[in-house]
Hints:
The protein is an alpha+beta fold.
Amino acid sequence: xxxxxxxxxxxxxxxxxxxxxxxxxxxxxxxxxxxxxxxxxxxxxxxxxxxxxxxxxxxxxxxxxxxxxxxxxxxxxxxxxxxxxxxxxxxxxxxxxxxxxxxxxxxxxxxxxxxxxxxxxxxxxxxxxxxxxxxxxxxxxxxxxxxxxxxx
Length: 152
């Protein structure tokens, strides 16, 4: 008979410890998470206009991808363009001396900041580089019939 009495007692003890730990956890104040303004927001967009100083398809600077340095009235600005393949697929070229306009947002990146272009314009040509939420776009294959496996 003794084994039957110990089992309910140990189960009751376990339940009491479990409830006490959940009550203690409920008493703790939540730790506030610091708000970060690193997410892209259309309401903070600005436009840069100037002359291309240099263009790199695969920059070593963060974030990785295509970068263009634009000489503006207030100085040189490094602009992240995203995926260089999107520029190539759209036949969008940038050369030193080109006059461009970039619409985007400056985002804090560590101790410095980075201008993320959502739209780049050169002459009558315009290319959307990011979604309205700031995610870089990628080129989409349009020739599905000639791909291995055919059309889905």
